[in-house]
């Protein structure tokens, strides 16, 4: 879910009870989940009767009825939440995958480590059946702006060709280039920084 908060809002009544009429509206459970990288934000559950703030992973509060204040938060077992709300969690879109491929200095040649990542990039695009994958070329600040823009375009084009040769439909690949703008590591002009010589791939 990236850096967005993940919240489950779940009605806890049984299916048969929900289908019977008349019925009191079922209680609602609000659970705060961590992001995929473990980051936890916070939410406040509020109604006219009161409010409770959730700011810990797997913390939850229940609102029994529209006339009741949110209950004091409690920590739920992660396994319990995942088991109980398996279907809701499974329905979420997969988080994006990002890859950074680095290049040799002033070159269109990938480093050995980045070359070894290509099969994983290809597999990820195939497994996700991606129809929206971006390929963005970058350079460091050595050389002129014009030369670096040209080099960043060439780097992105090389990666697109590699992916297309592996069976990826070029129509799902969105290509752009930034030259020496948007440095991963800010530097002065004419600084050879290996981490800025890159192509960033985002698989959605």
Can you characterise this structure?
There is one protein chain. With 204 residues, this protein is an alpha+beta fold. The chain folds into 2 domains: 6-90, no CATH class; 97-203, OmpA-like domain (60s Ribosomal Protein L30, Chain: A, 2-Layer Sandwich), CATH 3.30.1330. It contains 6 helices and 10 strands, in the order βαβββββααβααβαββ. The chain has helices spanning 15-19, 78-84, 86-90, 112-115, 118-128, 145-165, and strands spanning 6-11, 28-33, 43-47, 50-54, 59-63, 74-75, 97-102, 133-137, 173-177, 198-203. The strands form 3 sheets. Strands 1-2-5-6 form a 4-stranded antiparallel sheet, with no helix packed on it. Strands 7-10-8-9 form a 4-stranded mixed sheet. A two-stranded antiparallel sheet has the order 3-4. Helix 6 links the parallel strand 8 (133-137) and strand 9. The longest helix has 21 residues, at 145-165. Mean pLDDT is 88; it is low at 11-18.
Task: Give the helix/strand layout.
Blueprint: E1 6-11, H1 15-19, E2 28-33, E3 43-47, E4 50-54, E5 59-63, E6 74-75, H2 78-84, H3 86-90, E7 97-102, H4 112-115, H5 118-128, E8 133-137, H6 145-165, E9 173-177, E10 198-203
Parallel strand pairs: 8-9
Antiparallel strand pairs: 1-2, 2-5, 3-4, 5-6, 7-10, 8-10
Strand order of the largest sheet: 1-2-5-6
Rg over alpha carbons: 24 Å
Distance between the termini: 11 Å
Q: How would you classify the helix and strand content by structural class?
A: alpha+beta
Instruction: Briefly note the CATH topology name of the largest domain.
Output: 60s Ribosomal Protein L30, Chain: A
Weakly predicted, low-confidence segments = 11-18
The total tally of domains equals 2
Count of DSSP helices?
A: 6
CATH top level assignment of the largest domain:
Alpha Beta
SSE pattern? EHEEEEEHHEHHEHEE
Total DSSP E strands: 10
What sort of overall outline do the alpha carbons produce when their principal axes are compared? elongated
């Amino acid at each position: 879910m990236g850096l967005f908060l993940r919240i489950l809002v779940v009605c806890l009544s049984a299916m048969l009870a929900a289908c019977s009429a008349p019925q009191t509206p079922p209680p609602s459970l609000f659970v705060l989940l961590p992001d995929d990288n473990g980051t936890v934000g916070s939410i406040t559950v509020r109604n006219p009767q009161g409010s409770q703030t959730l700011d810990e992973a797997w913390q939850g509060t229940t609102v029994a009825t529209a006339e009741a204040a949110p209950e004091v938060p409690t920590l739920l077992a992660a396994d319990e939440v995942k088991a109980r709300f398996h279907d809701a969690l499974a329905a979420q879109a997969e988080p994006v995958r990002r890859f950074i491929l680095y290049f040799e200095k002033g070159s269109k040649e990938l480093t050995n480590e980045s070359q070894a990542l290509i099969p994983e990039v290809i597999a990820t695009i195939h497994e996700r059946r991606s129809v929206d994958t971006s390929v963005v070329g970058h350079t460091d600040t050595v050389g002129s702006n014009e030369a670096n823009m040209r080099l960043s375009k060439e780097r992105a084009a090389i990666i697109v060709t590699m992916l297309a040769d592996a069976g990826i439909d070029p129509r799902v690949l969105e290509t752009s280039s930034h030259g020496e703008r948007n440095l991963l590591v800010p530097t002065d002009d004419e600084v050879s920084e290996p981490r800025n010589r890159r192509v960033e791939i985002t698989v959605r």
